[in-house]
Amino acid sequence: MNKVFLIGRLTRDPELRYTGNNTAVASFTLAVNRTYSNQQGDRDADFINIVVWRKQAESVKNYLLQGSQVAVDGRIQTRNYEDNNGQKRYVTEVVADNVEFLGSKNSSNNSTNTNKNNNTEPTPYDFGDTPEPKGTDVDSNPFADFGSSIEISDDELPF
């Protein structure tokens, strides 16, 4: 079985490209904190390349930015290619089946958002302020144009 589950933050804005047959593919790097602390008491992070295909790739590009927190489930894929110098290169990446948007860096309050001892040097998972997500503006009430409201009481339920 080849199944991967990750939660982390984007280290850069996603890159969106299209294949020759116009299929969308997005890529980004996810910083995932390790579960243990190093000898200095800090938690290291792994930087994992993620690839997303089709409609979800376009959503990732439109709504995620550097520092956004996401959950990814997918599979590990390895591939190889020959570079311009004739050297064989190997790539390991996660091909995402699903990307869940968990929030921006500004919206979370966990301990990874602040540096210990007010140190101003960034840690591998400290991305600074994150702007609001890009994308289509959505009215704060998505049901505003659906007419009058409906009142429902418990007395009307059949059970």
Describe the structure in your own words.
The chain has 159 residues and is mainly beta. It has one domain: Nucleic acid-binding proteins (OB fold (Dihydrolipoamide Acetyltransferase, E2P)), CATH 2.40.50.140. It is built from one helix and six strands. It has one helix at 54-63, and strands spanning 4-10, 15-18, 24-37, 43-53, 69-82, 88-103. It has a five-stranded mixed beta barrel with strand order 1-3-4-6-5. A hairpin with a 5-residue loop joins strand 3 (24-37) and strand 4. It is globular and about 45 Å long. Residues 108-139 have low confidence and may be disordered.
Q: How much helical structure, as a percent, in the residues? A: under 10%
User: How far apart are the termini?
Assistant: 45 Å
Parts with pLDDT < 50 across at least 5 consecutive residues = 108-139
**Which percent band covers the strand fraction?**
35-45%
Multimer state: single chain
- What is the correct CATH architecture? Beta Barrel
What does the overall shape look like? globular
Radius of gyration: 21 Å
Q: Count the beta strands.
A: 6
Largest sheet composition = 5 strands, mixed, barrel
Number of helices: 1
- CATH fold name: OB fold (Dihydrolipoamide Acetyltransferase, E2P)
Strand and helix order: EEEEHEE
CATH class category name? Mainly Beta
Instruction: Indicate how many domains the architecture comprises.
Output: 1
CATH homology superfamily: Nucleic acid-binding proteins
